Amino acid sequence: MIALYGGSFDPVHIGHLRIAEDIREFFSLSKIIFIPAYHSPLKPECRASAEDRIEMLRLSLRYNSYFEIDDLEIKRKGKSYTIDTVKVYREKTGYYPSFIVGTDAFLTLKRWKDPEKLLESCSFIVVGRGKDTKDQVNRFLKENFQKTITESQIIEKEKTAVYFYDTRRIDISSTEIRQRVKENRSIKYLVLPEVEEYIFKKKLYRG
Ligand SMILES: Nc1ncnc2c1ncn2[C@@H]1O[C@H](COP(=O)(O)OP(=O)(O)OP(=O)(O)O)[C@@H](O)[C@H]1O
Ligand SMILES: O=C(O)c1ccc[n+]([C@@H]2O[C@H](COP(=O)([O-])O)[C@@H](O)[C@H]2O)c1
């Protein structure tokens, strides 16, 4: 069973990596496919190019055989709608894919493309972020989609559900990293050393 992890990854940081590893273990997943968005629909355009974001992902994922990158959204260009990506994986695998998402992004689901259809097309593994709570996610689901979180560690292939994963919270964001680089502050231990070196070598996020 694979899961898809979509994001801007501008840049990929330790929060993304550790959360993906925790989820892989907790749900016994065979693979996590990182899918960098060309343009995440509700955010401003990325600061780094698609090529640089992919390279930083490559540098970060290369020692984990459970992690892969798919550049289908980069190749598709334009706004990266999850419904389009999920459709490709549903056809490829023959089962309902799971999509990993932080609570900050999931709580905007009403503004995504075809949210009702999306909830019927894939499962979501929602990860607690910041001060967001499980109750808040359940309320959001109930009020907007007449759904609730499924309490299970086993992801089903034949039907969709919303799972909640919340063992640890990592207070790191790409915004903080970009801001720190701009202010000449340290990003050590927030990203992998290879990514830190790449950002400085390519002079990313400076101005
Ligand atoms: N520290 C974190 N803990 C849990 N989920 C995270 C964390 N960082 C990112 N995510 C989730 O990973 C996905 C991709 O995130 P993204 O690449 O946009 O990173 P970000 O740190 O949220 O970026 P930005 O600060 O630029 O908004 C989103 O679903 C987001 O909620
Ligand atoms: O499909 C949509 O309308 C949609 C709206 C907002 C976000 N997404 C996806 O959600 C993922 C996380 O987004 P972000 O902005 O946190 O990087 C990423 O894969 C986006 O393409 C998708």
TrEMBL record:
It comes from the Bacteria. SUPFAM superfamilies: Nucleotidylyl transferase. This is Probable nicotinate-nucleotide adenylyltransferase. Keywords: ATP-binding, NAD, Nucleotide-binding, Nucleotidyltransferase, Pyridine nucleotide biosynthesis, Transferase. Pathway: Cofactor biosynthesis; NAD(+) biosynthesis; deamido-NAD(+) from nicotinate D-ribonucleotide: step 1/1. Its EC number is 2.7.7.18. Residues 4-180 form the Cytidyltransferase-like domain. Gene3D superfamilies: HUPs. GO terms for molecular function: ATP binding; nicotinate-nucleotide adenylyltransferase activity. It catalyses: nicotinate beta-D-ribonucleotide + ATP + H(+) = deamido-NAD(+) + diphosphate. It is an enzyme of class 2 (transferase). GO terms for biological process: NAD+ biosynthetic process. Catalyzes the reversible adenylation of nicotinate mononucleotide (NaMN) to nicotinic acid adenine dinucleotide (NaAD). Belongs to the NadD family. It comes from Persephonella marina (strain DSM 14350 / EX-H1).
